[in-house]
Amino acid sequence: MKLTLIKKKFKTPKENRVKRPRVEKVMLSVVFVIALIYAITLLFPFVWISYNSLKTDGYYEFLLDPWGLPKNAIEGFKNYANVFKMKVAGLSFMAMLINSIEYSFVLTGLTIWFTTIIAYTLVMYRFKLRPVFYGIFSFNIAVNIIGGQASMIKLLSDIGLYGTYYGIYLFGIPGFGSTTLVVMAFFNNMAWDYGESAMIDGAGHWRIFLSIYLPMAVPIMVTIGILSFIGFWNDYTNILIYAKSRPNLAYGVNMVNTTLTQKGQYPQAFAYMMLSIIPGVLLFLCFQKVILKNFNMGGLKG
After folding, report:
1. Exposed (0-12), middle (13-18) or buried (19+): which is 145, by Cβ within 10 Å?
2. pLDDT value at position 36?
3. Paired sense of beta strands 91-92 and 87-88, if any
């Protein structure tokens, strides 16, 4: 018996390319140029502050030549060493760093937990007050309530939590913001068939949530956690209003920037800024693919 080999002609990658209309190519080029310009505008301030933080003189070297490179960059590294000698409200840079870590991690954990559990409940269960909660979400996102801060300060003072992080944790417990809507959209793509199968096997509501849906929601929880952490790390307004006695790095940057710039010591202020933003930048660079990735989960095949 004679075997005959069937030769298949495989297309080269060049042949597989989709031929786009000229109009579409022009539009893509324009969008690319706009995106590139936008990226440069975001990156340039970071680069500008970086090399200006290495200048040794705030007047002659910076104010008279703000666009020039540092004349003695090695000597300029003393600005970073001086950062650790500065104090805000009696606290050193390292003490404020510890405060920032505590503040950011606790609020991020609260954000992830309450956002996930509230979104899961509203999507997977039907009850009469469900539209009311949707209205609260919309109102909270659309209207920025600033007038309530005075009453909040009075309440925290009366219960002895003003000036501490615990008061911020109490009123900062999320669950009624835009992050909840994002997680709700994620759970909307998940089928309840998993929960029904688990109920048949005797699982309760908490067991279904913790063992089935919570692990499936890890990707969106990680994304929200990273973005929330960066936001809390840069938060100084809540510290300014509710906990001045325990400043974090963001509050320290605000105070040091005001003090040093009044004295003309701009390079040292820039060095302080650079050290304070490094953790957030590193976190974003390490997890940028996780943040930008689209998650498609919850489909059933059968």
Report:
1. exposed
2. 92
3. antiparallel
User: What is d(CA 145, CA 120) in angstroms, rounded to the nearest whole number?
Assistant: 26
Determine the Cα–Cα distance for residues 42 and 39; give it in Å rounded to an integer: 5
C-alpha–C-alpha distance, residues 154 and 177, integer Å: 24
**Terminal CA-CA length for the chain:** 42
Whole-number Å distance between alpha carbons of 215 and 184? 15
Taking the C-alpha atoms of residue 97 and residue 260, their distance in angstroms, rounded to an integer, is 20
Q: What local confidence, expressed as pLDDT, does residue 37 receive?
A: 93
Provide the pLDDT for residue 103.
92
Is the Cβ–Cβ distance between 174 and 231 less than 8 Å?
Answer: no
What average pLDDT values come out for the chain (302 residues) when binned by 10 residues? 48 58 83 91 89 83 84 86 84 89 91 88 82 74 65 82 84 69 85 83 86 88 87 87 86 85 85 85 76 50 40
C-beta of residue 283 within 8 angstroms of C-beta of residue 76:
no
| Closest residue by Cα to residue 100 from 232, 253, 238 | 232
Instruction: Identify the DSSP state of 61.
Output: I
Which DSSP letter does residue 72 get?
Answer: -
pLDDT of residue 144: 61
Are residues 226 and 284 in contact, defined by beta-carbon separation less than 8 angstroms?
A: yes
Cα separation, 147 vs 145, whole angstroms: 6
CATH architecture of 83-292: Orthogonal Bundle (1.10)
Q: Which amino acid is at 116?
A: T
Tokens at 235, concatenated: 């938060």
Report pLDDT for 290: 67
Q: Which two tokens stand for residue 58?
A: 């705030």
- What pTM does this model have? 0.76
Specify the pLDDT at position 176: 65
Output DSSP code: residue 246.
S
